[in-house]
Amino acid sequence: MDAPVLYSLDLIGVFVFALTGALAASRKQLDIVGFAFLASITGVGGGTLRDVILGATPVFWITQPAPVVLCVATAVFVYFVAPFVEYRYRLLLWADAIGISGYCVMGAARALDAGASPFGAVVMGVVTATFGGIIRDIVAGEPSVILRREIYVTATVVGATLFVLAILLDVPFWTASVLGALSAFAVRAGALTFGWTLPTYRSRPGRAFPPR
After folding, report:
1. CA distances in angstroms from 38 to 8, 9, 107, 128, listed in the order given
2. CA-CA distance, 71 to 20, in Å (whole number)?
3. CA–CA separation, 42 vs 138, rounded Å?
4. What is the pLDDT of residues 20-37, one digit of tens each?
5. How does pLDDT run across 164-185, given as a tens digit for each residue?
6. In this structure, are residues 65 and 74 in contact, taking their beta carbons and an 8 Å threshold?
7. Backbone angles phi, psi at 150, to 5 degrees
């Protein structure tokens, strides 16, 4: 993939995740600096970890400040618009669903472009898609989306895996990207709408030892 195309796709992911960070800031009633900070660390968090692991340093927003500028602009926009939006946490969840769907593909594409194995590319897709949201929830003190009962990480695994498999089968990049992103979004949307979950661990009482 051409670097300009990957960079443009990175900006789209940054915008969506910055939006979720700013929405989290609105729920915590932060000032505009807090909005900008939370939007920025959410927007570039996943991509930063991805680049560090892949050795693609300096990371993407160091040499080109457009991602951080985009995060701040998104934060300012949400700061003035959020008071007129009801159900902001619900909007945050759906925006996050869009973000992880695109970013799991973006992360996998970046990894393949850097020479990662197919397995490594899937892992990088999952890391890129989820890390920003984890940071957002920790900093904002929100219930972590990764710990919600409905499917979350699994959606990114599905999307990244289908994208990588399609690329290995010589499917055109954009077709593979749409396939991966839509499959991830379909799984996450189904989880949000219908409460899809995976079987959870159920602990059992410990075995009592006989007296000596």
Report:
1. 22, 21, 21, 17
2. 10
3. 11
4. 999 999 989 999 999 999
5. 999 999 999 999 999 999 999 9
6. no
7. -75, 160
pTM: predicted TM-score of the whole model, two decimal places: 0.88
Asked whether the beta carbons of 130 and 102 are under 8 A apart, the reply is no
Residue 142 has a pLDDT of 83
**In the block, residue with structure tokens 């973000």:** 99
Handedness of CA 172, 174, 180, 183 (dihedral sign): negative
Name the 3-class secondary structure at 202: coil
For residue 58, cis peptide bond before it (omega within 30 degrees of 0)? yes
Give the pLDDT score at 84: 81
The Cα–Cα gap between 189 and 7 comes to 26
Look at residues 21, 2, 17, 43 and name the one whose alpha carbon lies nearest to residue 101.
Answer: 17
Residues 62 and 117: their CA atoms lie apart, in Å, by: 26
**Terminal CA-to-CA distance of the chain, rounded, Å?**
68
Q: Which of 97, 114, 93, 6 is nearest to 51 (CA)?
A: 114
Q: Residue 198: how many CA atoms within 13 Å on its side-chain side?
A: 10
What letter represents residue 81's amino acid?
V
